[in-house]
Amino acid sequence: MDLKALLSSFNGFASLSFAENWDNVGLLMEPSPPHAVNTLFLTNDLTEEVMEEVLQKKADLTLSYHPPIFRPMKRITWNTWKERLVIRALEKEWLSTLLTQPMTPHPRESTTAPNYPTEGNQRIEFSINHSQDLDKVMSAVKGIEDVSVTSFSARIDDEEKTRISLNCTQKALMQVGDFLSQNKQLYQKTEILSLEKALLQHTGMGWLCTLDESVSLAT
């Protein structure tokens, strides 16, 4: 199968747009076209031991859950195992394709928005005062466990502002509150909401039910 066609299929199933901005996803190394993929090798982590197996199988494409290339490389030498992986991939033209897909949970796995913790029952929203502070705020809140973050543009007092929305647990909410209280100059117009599951129609506590026929209860 042609590499570009395969990438299109991957993107249709797990779009790269779902990935967080800190994640390094997609095609990481691409050989000169055309490149046909006959053998696809799947792995959770591309270690040097796994690379040996890839070489033995003569895989045309390696799909890794964790990106083998994450931080920028200033040089490619034999000093580190990450650099050695790149060298070995480049040495084999049929192997020089490394791909990683989004680490963010796929939205089809849940009926809720992607990346929302199932135990999260609190939502806090606030506006960023200055766009240059956005990275600082996002980095801080994403470092808190059990927090899911989204951002969107909103018009507030006739000005375009970036609005941050967090879904989190009660414990995480306290940590977010501590950060905000120490950085009051970064945000404004805060709202805190308690999230509850929607009630099903004609069910739940407080409903009186009348049976069509009497029944006996075991004691």
Low-pLDDT runs of 5+ residues are 102-119
| CATH homologous superfamily label of the largest domain | NIF3 (NGG1p interacting factor 3)-like
Q: Total number of helical segments? A: 5
SSE topology string: HEEHEHEEHEEHE
Strand order of the largest sheet: 1-4-3-2
Domain count:
2
Q: Roughly how many Å is the radius of gyration? A: 25 Å
Give the rounded overall mean pLDDT.
Answer: 77
Shape: extended
How much strand content do the residues show? 15-25%
The span between the termini is 66 Å
Largest sheet: 4 strands, mixed
Indicate the percent of residues in helices. Answer: 10-25%
Describe the structure.
The chain starts with a helix and ends in a 25-residue tail after the last strand. Strand 3 (61-64), helix 3 (81-91) and strand 4 form a beta-alpha-beta unit. It has helices at 3-13, 48-57, 81-91, 134-142, 170-182; strands at 26-29, 40-43, 61-64, 98-100, 122-128, 147-156, 159-168, 187-194. It has two domains: 3-100, NIF3 (NGG1p interacting factor 3)-like (Udp-n-acetylmuramoylalanyl-d-glutamate--2,6- Diaminopimelate Ligase, Chain: A, domain 1); 122-194, Alpha-Beta Plaits, CATH 3.30.70.120. The relative contact order is 0.13. Residues 102-119 have low confidence and may be disordered. It is an alpha/beta fold and 219 residues long. The chain contains five helices and eight strands. A four-stranded mixed beta sheet has the order 1-4-3-2, covered by helices on one side. It has a four-stranded antiparallel beta sheet with strand order 6-7-5-8. This is NIF3-like protein 1. Belongs to the GTP cyclohydrolase I type 2/NIF3 family. InterPro entries: DUF34/NIF3 (IPR002678), DUF34/NIF3_sf (IPR036069).
